[in-house]
Design a protein that fits this description.
single chain, 80 residues, three-stranded mixed β-sheet, globular
Amino acid sequence: MATEPHVPIIISDKAHGLPFSKGLLAQSFMGTGLPPSTAYSIAQSIQVRFKGWLPASTRLARGRKFYMAGAEISRRDGEA
């Protein structure tokens, strides 16, 4: 069974880029008071969406990460 090679998702502004970290994003959410399981689940959902958007390129604008985080939290809040 062949596995896909790991290609990092790079979050960047105009000059610099850093790899996306699901763990760091989850920690940021926990810092706002979200429980760890919820924070990790949201970060994982965002990672899946990023991978779906990036078939040809692994670079993603930093603002898109914040937009996706807000949208995912709002979506989950509406389900509660």
